[in-house]
Amino acid sequence: MDHPSIPQHNPNANVHSMEEWTSLSSSVTQLIVDCCCCNDDQLKTLDFSNWRVLKGIEIGSISFQYVETVKIVGLNDLERVVIGKNCFTQHKSSFGKNPDRHFYLKDCERLKELKIGYYSFNEYWVCRIENVDRLEVIEMGEIEEGGCTFKFASLELKSDSERME
Predict the structure, then answer these.
(1) Rounded to an integer, what distance in angstroms lies between the CA atom of residue 29 and that of residue 46?
(2) Spatial CB neighbours of 11, under 8 Å, sequence gap ≥ 6
(3) Cα separation, 33 vs 17, whole angstroms
(4) What is d(CA 95, CA 91) in angstroms, rounded to the nearest whole number?
(5) What are the C-alpha distances in Å from 27 to residues 30, 119, 148, 151?
(6) What is the pTM (predicted TM-score) of this model?
(7) Burial status of residue 77 (CB atoms within 10 A of its CB: 0-12, 13-18, 19 or more)
(8) Scanning 5, 51, 83, 142, which has its CA 20 to 30 A from the CA of 61?
(9) Angstrom distance (rounded) from CA 156 to CA 165
(10) What is the predicted pLDDT for the residue at 106?
(11) Computed over its alpha carbons, how large is the radius of gyration of the chain?
């Protein structure tokens, strides 16, 4: 029986381990990371600029716990980012503070959807979303779960577009 608090393995993921992460082709258009992956304490920065043709990013729950900086910048084909629960955090289903942890989502001209599960990025100090003029959906956490997504972060939304003003 499936329990909602236990992340489910995604057999369709193209990343199941750090080895697969480091050997991922730069021509991939859909990046799907399985649950409980890439929790290597040596991985501190996650910069998606190597994958210039990405259209979608999906990260399974409880992944990338030691990453301190996430950069999703200048991906002009990117349309969707979905991040599961308890990602980019060492304090699962809890929260902490770390001024060295930053999230940047900038200059992704086709991005329409950003969804982040509860308790993800809960230790992050900065959440900057800038120049994503087509962004229609931002979901962070879940009301029913009482999650602490970006609990202590300063949130900045910036755009030159009239649509976002």
Answers:
(1) 17
(2) none
(3) 9
(4) 6
(5) 9, 31, 34, 35
(6) 0.84
(7) middle
(8) 51
(9) 13
(10) 96
(11) 15
Q: How many residues does the chain have?
A: 165
The tokens describing 161, both together, are 């577009």
Tokens in use for 61? 């729950």
Give a three-class secondary structure readout of the chain. CCCCCCCCCCCCCCECCHHHHHCCCCCCCEEEECCCCCCCCCCCEEEHHHCCCCCEEEECCCCCCCCCEEEEECCCCCCEEEECCCCCCCCCCCCCCEEEEEEEEECCCCCCEEEECCCCCCCEEEEEEECCCCCCEEEECCCCCCCCCCCCCEEEEECCCCCCC
d(CA 87, CA 39): 10
- Token readout for 163 is 């649509």
46-102 residue pLDDT tens? 999 999 999 999 999 999 999 999 999 999 999 999 999 999 998 776 566 778 899
**Cα–Cα dist 23/18, whole Å:** 9
Q: Which two tokens stand for residue 111?
A: 């991005």
Residue 118 confidence (pLDDT): 85
**Which structure tokens are listed for 45?**
């920065």
